[in-house]
Amino acid sequence: MVGYAFMGAAHSQAWRNAPRFFDLPMRPDMAAVAGRDAAAVQAAAVRLGWSSTETDWKALVSRDDIDLVDICTPGDTHAEIAITALEAGKHVLCEKPLANSVEEAEAMVRAAQAADGLAMVGFTYRRVPAIQLARTLVADGRIGTVRHVRAQYLQDWIADPQAPLSWRLDKQKAGSGALGDIGAHIVDLAQFVTGEAVTGVSAILETFVRERPVASEHSGLRGTAGAQTGPVTVDDAAIFLGRMSGGGLATFEATRFAWGRKNAIRLEINGSAGSLAFDFEDMNVLHFFDATQPAVEAGFRRIVVTEPEHPYIAAWWPAGHGLGYEHAFTHQAVDLVTAIAEHRQPVPSFADGLVVQRVLAAVEQSAADDSRWTPVQKES
Amino acid sequence: MVGYAFMGAAHSQAWRNAPRFFDLPMRPDMAAVAGRDAAAVQAAAVRLGWSSTETDWKALVSRDDIDLVDICTPGDTHAEIAITALEAGKHVLCEKPLANSVEEAEAMVRAAQAADGLAMVGFTYRRVPAIQLARTLVADGRIGTVRHVRAQYLQDWIADPQAPLSWRLDKQKAGSGALGDIGAHIVDLAQFVTGEAVTGVSAILETFVRERPVASEHSGLRGTAGAQTGPVTVDDAAIFLGRMSGGGLATFEATRFAWGRKNAIRLEINGSAGSLAFDFEDMNVLHFFDATQPAVEAGFRRIVVTEPEHPYIAAWWPAGHGLGYEHAFTHQAVDLVTAIAEHRQPVPSFADGLVVQRVLAAVEQSAADDSRWTPVQKES
Amino acid sequence: MVGYAFMGAAHSQAWRNAPRFFDLPMRPDMAAVAGRDAAAVQAAAVRLGWSSTETDWKALVSRDDIDLVDICTPGDTHAEIAITALEAGKHVLCEKPLANSVEEAEAMVRAAQAADGLAMVGFTYRRVPAIQLARTLVADGRIGTVRHVRAQYLQDWIADPQAPLSWRLDKQKAGSGALGDIGAHIVDLAQFVTGEAVTGVSAILETFVRERPVASEHSGLRGTAGAQTGPVTVDDAAIFLGRMSGGGLATFEATRFAWGRKNAIRLEINGSAGSLAFDFEDMNVLHFFDATQPAVEAGFRRIVVTEPEHPYIAAWWPAGHGLGYEHAFTHQAVDLVTAIAEHRQPVPSFADGLVVQRVLAAVEQSAADDSRWTPVQKES
Amino acid sequence: MVGYAFMGAAHSQAWRNAPRFFDLPMRPDMAAVAGRDAAAVQAAAVRLGWSSTETDWKALVSRDDIDLVDICTPGDTHAEIAITALEAGKHVLCEKPLANSVEEAEAMVRAAQAADGLAMVGFTYRRVPAIQLARTLVADGRIGTVRHVRAQYLQDWIADPQAPLSWRLDKQKAGSGALGDIGAHIVDLAQFVTGEAVTGVSAILETFVRERPVASEHSGLRGTAGAQTGPVTVDDAAIFLGRMSGGGLATFEATRFAWGRKNAIRLEINGSAGSLAFDFEDMNVLHFFDATQPAVEAGFRRIVVTEPEHPYIAAWWPAGHGLGYEHAFTHQAVDLVTAIAEHRQPVPSFADGLVVQRVLAAVEQSAADDSRWTPVQKES
Question: In the 8-state DSSP scheme, what is residue A97?
């Protein structure tokens, strides 16, 4: 694993948990974690359960005892690490967004296509059981033709103008702000659940607070504000309209300025035969409206997605004993290990990540061009 | 009153109820109702409580015993009736949208400005107590500077492609579809609650079902489908981005294709100091997040807006004995009668209605121009 | 109508509304209202829409132009008025609880049985559309055999110890406190929706605040506190266990001390094949769990009970345009007028009211006897 | 650890997780797990992460390298194992209910008092962050004097009469049914959050389905039904009234027959100054009504208990990234290890467990005695 901050902790938990709850065809061995600060990476290794450390990711990537490289660093480093790892014959799991530009993402896809190893991008929310169930219901035709997608990712962690700068607010490192960090998730979820692509967008990006205190330390998403200030170089919020490949309309909204909404990933889909609604604030629940039922007893069904019949659940606890945020990472580890064992392409692939990247690029282009309708570049 | 269908029934209920629950400075006398079909209008008068009938609205408007003309007809007739009534010295209450075009709306505003009578447009949802409370909280600075407006009006009454044609699906009569019928409401609500204007938009309009059965009779919103079909000439759904005059971002979505959402008017506003959320499916409730509270005990407060301290409530029932859809019409009647008695301009005025009309026009223009950013025309 | 306070206002609204929205076989004529204070009853008549007044209910009851007597007075007067009215050949609608004692209630039932007129007791919440739908689903076997009834009626209007005395806190007038005022409703609802009887109870009654300020005026449920204090002679809260005649268990809780719960009538029923849940705070909604559905997609369905297919709704507004508290009174008026026109016994009958009264009596007896199991007296 | 079924898996996860997320004063070493079936316990050890196995718990308890014995077996074995372990100088964590009888529980308390080791009982739900916050708010006087406790634990896992027998339905092993298994939790939660004791009860126990298929295998809570049947010797549901030591009233309901409710632990508390509400179906949320706020803006606050300021949360994920069922077990491990390191008595102690046991005993006594009021035995 490269990187060991918030995402690194989540991934480590997944690697530790997966074999405890699931019957895996291969047992993950947490061989090494890489980070630039020797003392810090050593402490992280102990805490997170890695057997050894490297201070240079290149050393890690070239080790013979490494089969899979798990990339948990900021987006500006994804392409180089992933491509090097793939060229070294490793399997790769790369956090989202796949890269900070379409060009980098394309290079990563080419590297993945040329490589012996398998490559996967970490759109983890796909593996929340309620989202998996949503996908199944759509694929089974239970909501018919998709008419509307309504996707929001609402947070409030920098709604306070005194919240300090972090790498996530620095365009060089993060590529973009709310758009790439959280907007990428709802684009991927909209596409995954509908099984369709976003074909074009009309967008606005906005930075409400353009100057912020410099964080005196890097601990945590929030950090601690110091006396100095520096510029915010990414968007605070992204809103955009879109069209789905099946003819439906979509609205997207990603913001870090929605006071009171902590991690509200909301997805609502209306089809010709029914509707689905999900909110990560109630992550073990999926709401399903079946329009084929008689009007007198039709209603959104609040499905508590914790039955053994539901995706991934049989491995965990009895019904009603809900899962939390981190469990989707465990499911991701399980699915990746299984795909590797079966020599299958895991999903979402780097190509899937590129598709999202192209939507983000179209959003940026539209936002820079008077919100004009901007088609999403197709795979060449 | 001119017209006596769904809206006419709601307005009649309001005129009957207002003096029963509120101390009015003047007592409304339900003098006459007009409609083209003599027998039908006579039956409506008996049922709805009007003392006499006219088969020509011009006759009604010219009667000396009429002080106030209440217009409940389709939008294509609003301008002519309202202007004639104002020129005849009557007060006017006109259903929304104010007109089917900006030009008509401008003419109505000019007529209102020139007239002795007072003119009001029926954006009734403003008078839901929870919405009034929302406006008060924003005006009192409780959520700070508005960052985000998230407005949706979701219905499903023609999600079924076999739902028949009605005048609401005919561009000649209705002017537009979901946009003018329900989109107008959320534009007005967004502007009313924030106290700001929508300054520009980027939009998509869509008609999912372009041919529908002809209704064999005109009873009810749903009607009954016949064998013949005819074209749908209005939009089924409208989605648009906007900017508020205070710098915030807005998303709007109006659709009649959201299965399971019956009359879901949702308004969520995030400011620099807090947030508000409302859903008409739970119309007696307002959710308020106060970001000035300590994080450990902050949360969206579910305010049940049925206390005697709340707007309009003291006239009705004890706390918790909720109001329904029709009560907002009674509040509208109360406020209009009071304004007339006090020789004050009632709100929303025709000018307020024109502002909404200009937003709708900008939406249509943007939708026809590749979703390009389209400023809303300012008052000249 | 006798009495014209809170209940009188609600009943008057119903008599006015019923013929406006429903096709009634007979048209109610609001002939006269009775009250002891001549000026006050005259003002009430004007406000509420009654054609004449009486200062002695006996005069009203003996008038030839009166066919139906609607009793909206405190419980201590119900028996005398109702019996006199029935003996005078009138139809009677009597507010709940039927009486302040089983003996009175029995006398009322005997009078009703002997009379030509028809008698009905005002358990109005039965006529909330969602409750009617609940009854239909149970009667149709959709939840199977009833295992559990969970009934709560939670208010907070005297949670503040400074809330003043009112007749509702006076045993002489009210008979009991939370038990008879609101507990009676949930007993009736539990029996009505299940179609079963409560066969025995184990109970606790409690008065948390035994001395309160004397109200300086009688306006409103809350009144206004004065300097003097007086004793509270009724229960503030009643909690009891029960058994249903079909073998299920029941819990009941009625309190006026649940801060934040304004009029939360909650009914949850678990059967062998499904469950139902209702909360009056969201009165247009019924939740239904159908256990015959596959586990993977089973969930409580949130049925918005505003479709034309739902009880009473076709007469009102389009789907999603919810009803309020008062509408159930209109439904009650409609059903009573219809029963009278068809010479049928309206429900709930006085006998149904007596059944509830006997449950309340058993509750009081058990509470006075160490909560010991106390069978509900059967009809003799 | 003794036992390795559902509870054993949850405890193992906790022991593994605690040092990964929390800074512990001592590092747990998962030395050995005991079970009767050598092959099965060996497989469990590998899967759950234990270094060695024993087929006799007595061997485990006497090992020198064991400092803490974690008891995850059915209730009939708790007393013997715990007492033996304490006498052997070990610390003990014992799953709830503490024992199958008051006598056993008393012996365990005596053993704990006499021992050098520390003893704790596993009422894990106390350590859900929202419950901790509830306790803090009550202790800080934020809801004033407790008037009402409304506690429910609703499940549906044997609502189907074909659900097979398991040890949980066998009085010999489980002691009681819903009462001890889930009722014990809500009694403990009610006492913990209020800081008060249940002083007496009036109760009903019921077994709806008295004969069930014999499970053909023991995997999972549900098992798989075979052809034979056997008797259910415990209660399916327990409902009881109670009084709190501060004068408030309480209602309790524990059932496995509430279709659609999977693990709905609901706790609602009304005090003289406010209210609290919790439902485990939405476990990261606490609802708080503060009656000291102005009526116009008062409402239940939906506190999403995932802020770093909230109990336990800083060790986990950013705000809004909710926890799941298993996390409370990790918190339990953290608190126990910390108490041991600091030579402090951990809570809940065996004495706390005995208090719950006495409430359960009073419930059984009252249920057997016509629901008569039965005081809970005080500590002697």
Answer: S
